[in-house]
Automatic annotation (TrEMBL):
<dbReference type="Pfam" id="PF13614">
    <property type="entry name" value="AAA_31"/>
</dbReference>
<dbReference type="GO" id="GO:0016887">
    <property type="term" value="F:ATP hydrolysis activity"/>
</dbReference>
<dbReference type="InterPro" id="IPR050625">
    <property type="entry name" value="ParA/MinD_ATPase"/>
</dbReference>
<dbReference type="GO" id="GO:0009898">
    <property type="term" value="C:cytoplasmic side of plasma membrane"/>
</dbReference>
<dbReference type="InterPro" id="IPR027417">
    <property type="entry name" value="P-loop_NTPase"/>
</dbReference>
<dbReference type="InterPro" id="IPR025669">
    <property type="entry name" value="AAA_dom"/>
</dbReference>
<dbReference type="GO" id="GO:0051782">
    <property type="term" value="P:negative regulation of cell division"/>
</dbReference>
<dbReference type="GO" id="GO:0005829">
    <property type="term" value="C:cytosol"/>
</dbReference>
<dbReference type="GO" id="GO:0005524">
    <property type="term" value="F:ATP binding"/>
</dbReference>
<dbReference type="InterPro" id="IPR014433">
    <property type="entry name" value="CooC"/>
</dbReference>
<protein>
    <recommendedName>
        <fullName>AAA domain-containing protein</fullName>
    </recommendedName>
</protein>
<feature type="domain" description="AAA">
    <location>
        <begin position="8"/>
        <end position="181"/>
    </location>
</feature>
Length: 252
């Protein structure tokens, strides 16, 4: 199993990156997508209608269990069995190209740690069955830490072209280590608005490994307006070609 995460500020292109990766790996099933961002737009970008399927988030079932809002027949089960049942029945969405879990908004450590730990255990266990686990993370890294179970293989930090972009990339790299997220490789990726003439200075100025640029793609912009799935993007599109180049460069 390889675990890949995109991180970065809001709006840089984290979700687009993960959706493109899901398309890139679609022939290497089984794949698990985890939407750890409370905004929850990975499903839409990958063409999954979770509402239609009656799918719940991890947070939803934690609250259902906490307030006993569950079917009568389940109430007598042991906590671990309840959660296991609800997770498999309600949370895990099994699709044609990938499976999908949405973490939801309310998952906090708090004092409700027993169900939390049970859920982390379930996710850690199922992750092993996949060839790729792709995680769309929230902008706040502390949240990521709570939601990630095991070590990450590749972290892609997506950087936008602000005048402090390099500083913020370095800070994110440091922060990831400080809060104890374990990873093998940490790469900087320039987002679609990053100027080409500054690409060469990324490695020199940040000391990070540079994986490439996710080029501007008109279709991506239009798809996010109309809610169309990134899986429908043609193979020879600028964004999909960028993903191919990036993944090749980092050894996939
Ligand atoms: N390669 C790209 N080409 C064109 N537009 C893009 C590209 N990547 C992202 N975008 C635009 O940026 C918006 C934000 O991207 P998104 O992945 O949702 O950011 P994040 O998840 O980091 O908040 C998208 O809705 C899309 O309009
Ligand atoms: Mg996002």
């Amino acid at each position: 199993m390889k675990k890949i995460v995109s991180i970065g500020r809001g709006g840089v292109g984290k979700t687009v990156f993960i959706a493109l990766l899901a398309k890139y790996f679609r022939d290497q099933k089984p794949i698990l997508l985890i939407d750890a961002d409370p905004d929850q737009n990975l499903a839409e970008m990958t063409g999954v209608d979770l509402g239609k399927n009656g799918t719940k988030t991890v947070s939803d079932i934690l609250f259902d269990v906490k307030f006993d809002k569950i079917e009568e027949g389940l109430k007598s089960l042991a906590l671990a069995d309840k959660i296991d049942y609800l997770f498999n029945q309600k949370v895990l969405y099994e699709g044609k190209y990938f499976d999908f879990i949405s973490i939801g908004t309310k998952w906090t450590e708090g004092c409700y740690c027993q169900p939390n730990n049970i859920l982390k255990g379930i996710i850690a266990k199922i992750e092993k069955h996949y060839s790729y686990v792709l995680i769309d993370s929230p902008a706040g890294l502390e949240h990521l830490n709570r939601r990630i179970t095991s070590s990450i293989d590749e972290i892609f930090a997506i950087i936008d072209p602000s005048w402090k972009a390099f500083e913020s990339a370095k800070r994110v790299h440091k922060l990831v280590q400080e809060i104890g997220i374990k990873f093998k490789n940490f790469y900087a990726v320039a987002n679609y608005r990053f100027p080409d003439e500054r690409l060469e200075s990324i490695e020199k100025e940040t000391g990070l490994k540079f994986a490439g640029k996710l080029r501007y793609d008109e279709d991506i912009e239009n798809y996010s307006l109309s809610g169309k799935s990134i899986f429908e993007l043609i193979e020879d599109s600028p964004a999909f070609n960028s993903i191919k180049e990036i993944m090749k460069k980092v050894g996939y």
